[in-house]
Amino acid sequence: MALFLRDIHLSNVKVTEDVLTQLYEVFVNRAQPLIESADQQGREDKKPIVFSVIRFDEKGYRVFSLGDLLLHFRRAKSVERVIITIETGESLQSGRGLGEHLEVRFDRMDDKLCYLSVTADDSDWVEASYSSVLEVVNKNKTKNGWARSGWSTLIIQLLGLITGFALSLWAALKISPSLAIENAFIITFFFALLVFSNAWGYVNSIVLSWVHRLFPNVYFYRSDIDRIDWLLQAIIGGIATALMLYLLSGVFTFIGSILSSLPK
Asked: Which is nearest to 170 in space by CA: 263, 259, 245?
């Protein structure tokens, strides 16, 4: 079985035509030592093949040249996945238990399926292949991680809680005078807060899904197609920051005015 393995999860990567070209060249270069070794040993099953898989617009293709890969990449409305692979006959026959294998995978739909993996009997080939691919990837990082981080999730959650508290106070202030019951304000407030708390779970998941879609882990970028998305990110990011500060100021002012009007 293959003795050496290096793998890593990939995150916050911008994939362009230039990145795909660089990666494909790396894969072709890393396949060359395998071809020479297979020729020396007279082992046809040791000879590698370089191919890629691209999925876009709910359909996928396996291609065996950089030109075909870029052709599909350019014409896609929405690129979902790109995989570039070196595989030997031995690796294919053994289900990747034997032989050399190198693969980089970018998946816009599932963050967990974005990785670089390389395995072989030759540790030098593994290390050189791993470093060469990772060098290209690391040069094309995005800053989308901040929008997908735990801190971003916490901020959205806190904003939701503050907004819910303010809306509950407003609802209690408007509705309680028309209720002929004891402690109408408190009952109305807690009822409104309970309704909001149950609704917020669904709203929060929608907001997080929207944020992750707008700031993807893997960003497939074509300058003539995806420029609007980039501008939209910048505009929405600026608006969201300004709106958050404005809402926080307004919410705290509103809460303060309501609390000050309550009987002491």
From this structure: 259
